[in-house]
Automatic annotation (TrEMBL):
Pfam families: MerR, Methyltransf_11. This is MerR family transcriptional regulator. InterPro entries: DNA-bd_dom_put_sf (IPR009061), MerR-type_HTH_dom (IPR000551), MerR_fam (IPR047057), Methyltransf_11 (IPR013216), SAM-dependent_MTases_sf (IPR029063). Keywords: DNA-binding. PROSITE patterns: HTH_MERR_1, HTH_MERR_2. It comes from the Bacteria. It comes from Streptomyces mauvecolor. Residues 1-67 form the HTH merR-type domain.
């Protein structure tokens, strides 16, 4: 028991207590006849301690680990999701704190509402306010999405945000979990339901098509969300990102030369092949036009000075997620290389290109 307590980082008293209340009972015996933890007991103890660390009460934990329909893999999946949610929440809180520190440093007053906002902040609740400055529909990307929607009449737009790429000529229902993003939808936009992709509140086959644009990488569980889309709609259209090719971070000079941290943000993201498989889709490249109207992360590949603009970066979640230090370094390096001509020298091949394949892909079933 002492050894297990030491490895798990809890007191022997805690283990006794779990034994007394029947939460984790050591079921094996040592050669001297003392009770000992079997591999199965250790697995259960690990689940109990992980849920406890996430703030669940003992009774809730007992219900969670006592559920016979949830096996070890399902528990790990659930714990992973809860931890990622925490991480996103922490990212959003850090972003909110940075904003408040910057405001205070400039001698600005911070309202009580702004102070409280930080506590309830989710990533898009924290950064969503800056979104509308540069994020809007690019007509060429919209045309490609519209072609992929085919003759669908009823469309579900998952992770809809403010409604870019939502077709106007079809019957659309939007799904968006962030209150800040929902609040920025125009009055004549499609009706929007507060929900997340992983658990869509619709019956099987309710829509002709479910679409999702530039959102899957934000989902707690992308594969579960994609399966949900497949469940509620007869077809699925998803604009996402390809990380299958080795060396993919080198496709775009911004990640190659200035922001290598971008790669680690997508380290856990499923492969394009796995996502395509999950919904039975084919993948089509989505070239980014040189004058892309939607200020997405790759939009300014031929207009590098745009990345030096604060309001441009604030509408791209990448910069919040890599953190202030990496952001400042990238901006400083790019500023220097634009001034010295080094950027132009390295990227001379881009000068005449009308569009670039930077890894955006449309999955279509
Ligand atoms: C980059 S925005 C894209 C919005 C819109 N689709 C567009 O193309 O402009 C990502 C959106 O995904 C939403 N989102 C984050 N987690 C989500 C989840 N689990 N399910 C559905 N949407 C989610 C965010 O709140 C945000 O509005």
């Amino acid at each position: 028991m002492g050894r297990v307590a030491e490895l798990a980082g809890v007191s022997v008293r805690t283990l006794h207590h779990y034994d007394d209340i029947g939460l984790v009972r050591p079921s094996a015996r040592t050669s001297a006849g003392y009770r000992a933890y079997s591999a199965g007991d250790v697995e259960r103890l690990r689940e109990v301690l992980a849920y406890r660390r996430l703030g669940f009460g003992l009774r809730e934990v007992a219900d969670l680990v006592g559920d016979p329909s949830t096996d070890a893999v399902a528990h790990l999946g659930r714990l992973r999701g809860l931890l990622l949610e925490r991480r996103d929440h922490a990212d959003a809180m850090v972003a909110a704190i940075d904003r408040e520190l910057a405001a205070r440093a400039r001698g600005l007053k911070v309202t009580p509402e702004e102070q409280l906002e930080m506590l309830g902040a989710r990533l898009y609740d924290a950064i969503g306010g800056a979104y509308t400055a540069t994020r809007r529909t690019d007509p060429r990307i919209a045309a490609q999405i519209s072609d992929a929607l085919g003759d669908a009449h009823t469309v579900l737009n998952v992770g809809a945000g403010t409604g870019s790429y939502e077709p106007r000529d079809r019957q659309v229902t939007a799904v968006e979990p962030s209150a800040v993003m929902r609040g920025q939808r125009s009055a004549d936009a499609a009706p929007c339901v507060a929900a997340a992709a992983e658990s869509l509140p619709f019956e099987n086959g309710s829509f002709d098509v479910a679409m999702a644009v530039s959102t899957v990488h934000h989902w707690r569980d992308p594969m579960a969300g994609l399966r949900e889309m497949r469940r509620v709609a007869r077809r699925v259209v998803v604009l996402t990102f390809d990380t299958d090719e080795p060396g993919w971070p080198d496709r775009f000079w911004l990640t190659r030369d200035y922001l290598p941290e971008f790669a680690s943000l997508l380290a856990e993201f499923p492969s394009l092949a796995a996502m395509a498989n999950a919904i039975g889709a084919r993948a089509e490249p989505v070239p980014v036009p040189w004058d892309c109207a939607d200020g997405l992360f790759e939009a300014y590949w031929r207009r590098p000075a745009a990345y030096l603009e604060d309001h441009v970066r604030r509408a791209m979640s990448v910069w919040t997620r890599v953190g202030q230090e990496a952001e400042q370094r990238a901006v400083q390096d790019l500023t220097a290389d634009l001034a010295s001509g080094r950027w132009a020298e390295r990227n001379s091949a881009l000068a005449g290109l009308a569009a670039a394949d930077l890894g955006l892909r449309l999955l279509i079933t």
